[in-house]
Amino acid sequence: MKTIIEPFRIKVVEPLRMTTVAEREEILSAARLNVFGVRARDVLIDLLTDSGTGAMSSEQWAAIMRADESYAGADSFYRFHEKVKAITGFEHILPTHQGRASERILFELVGGPGKVVPNNNHFDTTRANVERSGAEAVDLVIDEARDPKNRHPFKGNMDIAKLRGLIDRVGAEHIPLCMVTVTNNSGGGQPVSLENLRHVKEVCREHGIPMFLDACRFAENACFIKKREPGLQNESCRAIARKMFDLADGATISAKKDGLVNIGGLLLLRDHKLNLDARNNLILTEGFPTYGGLAGRDLEALAQGLDEVLDEHYLEYRLRSVEYLGERLIEHGVPILEPPGGHAIYIDAGQFCPHIPAQQFPAQAVVVGLYRLAGIRSVEIGSVMFGGTGRKVDLELVRLAIPRRVYTQSHMDFVIEAIAELFARRDSLRGLRIVEEPETLRHFTAKFEELSA
Question: What pLDDT is recorded for position 337?
């Protein structure tokens, strides 16, 4: 069959609130044109993030009921540990309350002034935790990733020549680890090939540098490898995921993505000494190592979710539903980052509204315009999110992140219609300026005002 259906049926429904354009104008004004400040009840379709916004299965809810909430040595932890070890092969497994907690622990231990951390592309919290330690975060993604129309099958790949050049320039002794984000969120949800991971590992091994994964979307990346990388079509996504983890010396994971849960994170380590240091930090800041800031019920739901996310039918539906959204937008002439990514579609805001210069935040203008028109919430990934760090921003993007197992095709058809209508009215969009911002991660709480036409 050509139609890929949702491989589940709906058991519980939640009503959506319909707002008017006039109401949304008031809501935007109160939020100072930052959709992070909009109440969820005032959002019709919420594509702000796929992190922690998915729907859990009946089996996950059932697992919650058997949870052991003992402070130390709970059975829920050992069931969780067994599942994570089976999928990843890691023995040292530390639960955290979410991915940024894993990043904080890791870079507090290995970062610091004078250190340099390469990545294909750091995402916002990863970069912030690296830089908070005093280290420098360097992006080394391949050049094809900076061309929105280039349909390279693995635009998330790290540029091996750039990695070697960085090591030669700063010295391996100043690089505590090399991280690869799979899939590459800041770069459009684009996958990283297994071949590229092997090349990165070879370079790291040559220079004694540990290789880490930011593995929030490891299952989606594994599915892309199965679909696109020669010689791997007959491998299961579970087997490919294990090959990815086997190359790594450690990993940080936000379980709120491919863990199919609403809260939780992981820090996976091979080095015994680093694990001891991380565990001590965890006890101080997150909780005892057998719960790490999570309730037993969270660990149970996560263990079940990690099984479900590697289901081949689920992954086929997941990637195809995102691809469907991208294909329909392209048909309407909407410029997006191609090919469609695994968890989101990224609108090229620089091309969407070329009359708005980068310093006036064209992607944020599209975000505001889409909410104003249709009550759809998205997120800016461009000069607002990353420009405050002083780094050059290559692309002004609007991310439409699709929550897992939440919306149906008719919801996506509505999104397509709304974006197509906004694109037809794009000349009416106005640039913005920031009137208030914090020192770090400004996109979460910055306040804006629209400039005169």
Answer: 96
Structure tokens at 374: 């249709």
Question: 343: domain range?
Answer: 21-50+311-450
Are 242 and 333 members of one domain? no
pLDDT band at 390 (very low <50, low <70, confident <90, very high): low
Do the domain assignments include residue 13? no
The neighbour count for residue 435, using CB atoms within 10 Å, is 11
| pLDDT tens per residue across span 247-273 | 999 999 999 999 999 999 999 999 999
Residues 324 and 293 in one domain: no
The confidence score (pLDDT) of residue 391 equals 67
The HSE-up count of residue 171 (CA atoms within 13 Å, CB side) is: 4
Q: How far apart are CA 453 and CA 450, in angstroms?
A: 9
Backbone dihedral angles phi then psi of residue 369, each to the nearest 5 degrees = -65, -40
Paired with 92 in beta bridges are 269
Q: What is the pTM of this model?
A: 0.94
Could you give the number of structural domains in the chain?
2
Tell the residue number behind the tokens 């439409």, with chain if given: 400
| 140: nearest Cα among 116, 126, 112, 121 | 121
Q: Is 246 left (phi over 0), alpha (psi -120 to 50) or beta?
A: alpha
